[in-house]
Amino acid sequence: MTNIFSKLYNNKKEELFFERDMSPDKSRKLKTNIGENLRIVNEYLSDCDDVITRNFYMGQGGKHQMSLMFIDGMVQMQTVQDDILKPLMLFTRQFPLEYNVGEKFFNMVKEGLLTAGDVKEIDNFGEVILGILSGDTILFIDKMEKALIISTRGWEKRGVQEPSTEAVIRGPRDGFTETYRTNVALVRRRLKDPNLKVKTIKLGRHTRTDVGIMYIKGVAKPSIVDEVLKRLNTVDISTVLESGYIEQMIEGDWLSPFPQLRRTERPDVVAASLIEGNVAILCDNTPFALIAPTTFLSLFQSPEDYYERWYIVSMIRILRFIAGFFAFTFPALYIAMTTFHPGMLPTDLVLSIAAAREGVPFSAVVESLIMVIALEVLREAGVRLPGPIGQTIGIVGGLVVGEAAVRAGIVSPIMVIVVAVNAISSFAIPNYSVAIGFRLLTFILMALAGVAGLYGIMLGLLGLTIHLVTLKSFGAHYLSPFVSFRFSESKDTLIRGPMPSMEIRPGYTRPQDLDRINDRRHDTIDKAGDESADQ
Amino acid sequence: MKKYGKILTILTFLLVLVGCWDMVEIDRRLFVGIVGIDVSDEPNKYTFHFSIPIAREIMGGEGGGGGGGVGGESVSQITTEAYSLIDAARNLALRINRDMYFEHMRIVVISEEVAKKGLKDVLNPFARQTEFNRRSRIAICDGKAEKVMQVKPWAEKLKAEYMESLYASRVMSGKFIQMDLGDFFHNLYTQNGSTLVSKITPNGTEVNIGGAGVIKNFKFIGWLNEEETQGINFFLGKVRGGEIVAEDIGGTGTVTFTILGEKAQLSLKTAEPIPEFDFKAYVTGDIASTSHAVTYDHDKLGTKYIEELEKVISEEIKAQILKGIKRLQEDYRVDLLKLNEHLKKYRPDLWKIYEEDWEDIFPQVSIEVDVKTSIKNVGILR
Questions:
Q1: Is the pLDDT of residue A488 over 70?
Q2: CB-based contact A343 B53, cutoff 8 Å
Q3: In chain A, which residues have their Cβ closer than 8 Å to the Cβ of B17?
Q4: Are residues B186 and B243 located together in one domain of the fold?
C-alpha cells in the first residue's frame, strides 16, 4: 500500500525548490560577486518579508563588502549582534587590517574574528537557503566563492514541563518539548554513554523537519536500526508536523487497530527502551517520541512500573489487564448475557436487570449502542474544550443527562453502569492510542454479540488473537514474549518481578548484549549490610 | 485487497443480522422458578404449574416506566393441563406473550400421585432438553404439588430461592436428600430406575424438606422418615453436618453431638451363598451440649467420660443406620445402598451371578455395621 501512496505523490510532484536529496542546489555554487549572490538568494526568498539582509563594510575605506542574512525571530539577536556584527564592525577598527580581499582574509574572519560558537564554510546555494530557513545566519564576503554559516538558532519555545499524557506519581517530572535538540539532550543526559548514537535526517519536502533516530550501539540489533533507517528513508511526504505522520508512514500494518510504535512524551521511557535494545525516533516540533519495535505488553506499561516496588506494580499490572479486557468486551458481554444466555447470570441479577429494562423502548443492542456512542461524543467534547468547561461537560453529560435518561426510561440504570465501567476501564490503559483502539473494538464486539451472543464474542476474540499473533513490529512479534515464549522473560510481563531477578533484557529486540544485571550483587550487599547492622 | 473486501462484507452482514438468531430481550422472558406437576382428571394428562417471579414487583417497582402496584403479588402462578411439559409450554404460548425460560428453574415438584403412576414420561423432557437447569432440585411432594406452589414464605420474596436455599443448608444435611436434577437422572438411569428422592411437605408459610421418597422401577413406592434418611445418608457417607442427640452418661439428660464429617467404608466379607458386607463409619464431631453443668473441674469431663460418650453416640448412629437398612430391605426391597455398585466395581464376576435376582437377594444380604465416633472438641469450658 505504501507503493500506492508514493505513486500518488510522484505523479503530482510539484515544482519545488528543494529536491529530496538537494543535489541540484548543492551543485549550484556560489558566485564571486557578492551582489550576484544576494540577488540569487533573494530570488529564492522573494516575498519573504521576515528575511533580513544586513550589508556592511569592513576595513579602511570599506574595502571589504559583507552581507549578513537571517530570518527575524528564528535567530538569537544577541548572538548576531555580539558575536558577529560587533567583532566585525567595531573591534576591527582598533587595528589595521593588513589583508586584502582573498583567502587569507576569509580565514581570518572565520578563525580570528567571529566569536560565535559554531561557524562552517559553505559553497552552494542549497545549504545557504536551508541554513537561513533553519535559523542560521549566513555571512557573505565579497570576492569569495564561499560563505560562512553561523549557528544562531534560537526562537521562542516552551520550556521543559511535566508531560501531560503520561503523568506519574513517582518518577521524573520532565517531558519532551517541541525542540528536537532539547529532546535529544534530555535523553543524552540520562545516558552518558558514548555508544548512544543519534542520526538526524530531514523529512518532509516542505517542512524539512529534523527527524533523529537514537540507539545504543552494541545493544540494539543492527538490522533493526537499519530497518528503521530504511523505512524512514522511503518516506516521501510533503509535511511532517508531528511524529504521528512518520508513525503512520513506517508502520507495517496500517489496517491494524493497534499502534506498532509506542509513543511517549517521557525521556526516561525513551532511555529505558534504548537500553532494552529499542530504537527511538525523535521528531522536531513535537514532544512525542516513537519507540520501535513495540510489543503489545509494553503498551500496558507505565514508567512507574519500574520505579515502584514489585508487589504493588504486579498487582497494578494485573488490574490494568483486567481493565483492558473489560475496555472492549463489557458492553458486548452485557448484550450476550442478557439477550442470549440469561441462564449464566445469578437469578437475583437476572431479575434486577429484567426489572430495570422493563419499559425501556430499545433492544439491548440499540440501547448499548446509544450509550456507547453518547459516551464517545462526551469524551470527544471534553477533550476539545478548555479545562474548566471540559469538567462541566463531564458533570452535565455524565450525571445530569445520564440520570435524566434513566428517569425518562430511555436507558436502563444497569446500562449506565456497564458503559461507565467500560469507559473507566479503557482510561486505565496507560497508552491513549491503545485505549482508543480498544474503544473501536467495542463496537465490533457489540455487533458480534448482537448477532450470535457469547459465540460471537468468542469468534471476535479468536479473530483478534489471530491478528495479534501475526502482527509484527519491525521484525519483533507483537505478542512477545508470549509468542516464542521463554520463561526467563516472563518476569516482566503480566507481573513485574523483583528488580534483582530481572537479570536479562527482554528478547524481542534481539539485543546484542543481553545482560541487564551482571551478578546478584544486590543480594550479597543486602545480607552483608544486615549482618553488620545486627552486630 | 480481496481479503479486506471479505472482512468488510462480513462486517456488513453483522450490522444487518443483529438479533437474528435466538436472541430474546431479557425483559421479554419469564424466568420459571418452580415447576409443579399434579395429576389431572383427564387420563394421560397432567396439570402443570409454573411459578414465575414478576421482576418489576420483586425489585420494588423501580426502573423503566412507572412503578408497579405496591400490594401486587411478587410471584405469579400459571396452570395448564397438558400431556407433557413441552405440550404445556405450547399451550401457554397461546395465553402468555413472553417466552418461558427454564434455566433459572430451581425446583421441580412432583406430586405423590404422579410419582406413583410413574416418572418415565413426565420427567423425560427434563432429561432430554438442554434448556432446563440441571442444577435444579427435584422433590416429591406429600400431597398436591399445587400446595407447595402456594406456599408463601414469610422471610423471602421468592419461593424458588427460599426452597433452593433450604437445600443448600449444610447444617441439617443428614436428614434430607442432597441431589440435583443431573444427579437424579444419573442415579435413575444407572440403577434401573431406583433412587432416593427428596421429600417436600408444604405447611402454610413453610415447606419441610426432611425425609425421602423411594423410587423403584421409575415408580414412587413409599416414604422414609428423617431418621431413616439420615441412617442411609450415613451409610452412603454423605453426612457433613447435623446433630445426634443421645442419652447422657448416667441418665441425667441428653447430650447433643454436632457432626463435622464422616468417612464410610464398605467391604465384602463373604461372597457366597448370600453376600455379606462389612460396613464401617468414622464420624467426627464436637460436643455441643451435655446435661452436666459447665465446670472448671477437669475430672467431670475427663478422657474416660469422652470415651463413654463416643460409644453412646456410635450406638445411636448405628441404630439409625440399621433402621434405614431394615426399611429398605424389608419394606421396599430395593437396593439404594449402592451395594450393587460396590459389587459391580470390585467383584464383577460375582455381580454377573447375582445380577438377575438381585432384587430377591438384596433383602437377605446381611450387613455388619460398625460406627466409630471421635469427639474433637468439647467446648471452651469443660
A1: yes
A2: no
A3: 451
A4: no
